[in-house]
Write the structure tokens for this entry.
Amino acid sequence: MSLFAGILRTEDLNRSLTEFAPETIESMIGEILAAHEAERNAANALFVAGETTAPTAVIREAGIDEGQEIGEDGRPLETHVSGHYEVGFPLKRLGWAVGWNDETAAYMTVADLDREVSAKLAGNARRHWREILRAVIGSNSNYTYTDRFAGSVTVRRLANQDGTPYGEDALQDNHYLVSGYANNALSATNNPFVTLATEIREHFDTTSRIVAFVNPAQVAEIQNDLTTFVDRGVDGIVPANTTAVANEPGALRVPGDFLGIDSASGTYVYAWNRIPASYVYAQAIDEPAPLLRRVPEPAQLRGFRTVAEEEHFPFYKRTWRELFGYAVANRLVGAVMFLDGGSSWSDPSV
């Protein structure tokens, strides 16, 4: 679908760019970029709780105070919620550019520019998804980012046994799990969704709904060997009165194809080709999302935007740039499982 078709008449798409004032073209591109950014961020909202301009943040855990039994003249002791941990956020600089010379520019139409801009938008969206998944499942190891203002910043993953205490018991935890069985050995006993849901829910005082993502290569194994799995309904097919069908959780934008529900854990399962084979990622959807997106503090540096138009005869170049970074803030809301018969975690290629 043409990006410019919603702004110009269809017949204008084959007109030469030289027939339009440069500021008109730039205004149209700015409108398209703004719409793209809003749609992209909405699509990522399941994983991204919001934005921050700070290189670090202190995440304060929610506490639970059940009260104290006291006598008729007694007074309860004062209590305070004290659990917290520090996280850090990188800020990457990504650039895109397109260029031509005076001869190719003379032949260039609005449709040609539309194609170039479309490629940049698709690449921008894909890069954001890649950075999101790298932040969540790309590694179980923290790393150090050198910030221009804050110096060395520790960027943390989901709970990874790094010495951070969580909850009332102030214990460490690890949300990067190894199944101990191969990805073709699923069964009622070897059920990754039960293990992942239990690992996540133990940190919350409610039974939060869980979604899980698998690679499409694992679909047949899940549907055939997990006896507790309930397939989704299929449009155009009316199930028998005694056949259970699964429905998606409402009011959520979840990437991938909905497969059904693992009834043993209540997990909504999606096949998504961005998930590496032999890995399963699960997340509670009734709790704050795991990531924050860092953006620059100066407003004029934020967003995916045109930053330069350069002309040096016979060459012309248009450059777009975006500064952003993703990192985990809520370290307990998600968990990853590596489906492998061994006992050692291996970082996936994302």
Summary: The mean pLDDT is 88. Residues 176-290+330-338 form a domain with the hypothetical protein PF0899 fold fold (CATH 3.30.2320). The first strand starts at residue 48 and ends at 52. The radius of gyration is 25 Å.
